[in-house]
């Protein structure tokens, strides 16, 4: 497999895993559990470009043009970055013969990013400590990122199956 083929495969794995997570989030929304508004991610990223890292409340920060689109693009870019993280840990050969364990482990570990970086920067506190239900929110994040880990495995498996 050429370098370009490897890169394309990992990008597709990241997009697929993020899509699996999005399907999970749509299911949660359908049963009445409100997921994160991706416009807030876009708002946070937009403010980063203007030098503002942290907010008392991202919901009260001034809106950014096209923040919803920016939020979705960021969401998928992060999913792709995490797929590259997985293949840098497990090796590119993992993408040709994926195993569930390392994919789930990486998915679970990715929860550190929202809990320790994004939530504090958006005014929610470390591990959602400034929300009314921090433990519930942390568990929900852990489940969501576990689903992402499952998505990494499923995407790699399907891509390898199709490419045979």
Automatic annotation (TrEMBL):
Keywords: Membrane, Transmembrane, Transmembrane helix
Superkingdom, taxonomy of origin: Bacteria
InterPro entries linked: DUF2938
Family annotation (Pfam families): DUF2938
Bilayer-spanning residue ranges: 7-27, 73-95, 102-122, 142-162
Protein name: DUF2938 domain-containing protein
Lineage: Bacteria, Pseudomonadati, Pseudomonadota, Betaproteobacteria, Rhodocyclales
């Amino acid at each position: 497999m050429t370098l370009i083929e490897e890169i394309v495969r990992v990008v597709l794995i990241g997009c697929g895993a993020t899509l699996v997570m999005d399907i999970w989030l749509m299911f949660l929304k359908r049963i009445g559990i409100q997921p994160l508004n991706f416009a807030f991610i876009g708002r946070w990223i937009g403010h980063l470009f203007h030098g503002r890292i942290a907010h008392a409340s991202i919901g009260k920060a001034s809106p950014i043009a096209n923040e919803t689109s920016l939020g979705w693009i960021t969401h998928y870019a992060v999913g792709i970055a995490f797929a590259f993280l997985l293949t840098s840990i497990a090796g590119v050969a993992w993408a040709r013969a994926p195993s569930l364990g390392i994919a789930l482990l990486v998915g679970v570990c990715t929860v550190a990013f929202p809990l320790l970086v994004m939530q504090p920067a958006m005014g929610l506190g470390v591990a959602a400590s400034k929300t009314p239900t921090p433990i519930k929110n942390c568990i929900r994040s852990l489940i969501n990122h576990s689903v992402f880990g499952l998505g990494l495995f499923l995407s790699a498996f399907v891509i390898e199956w199709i490419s045979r």
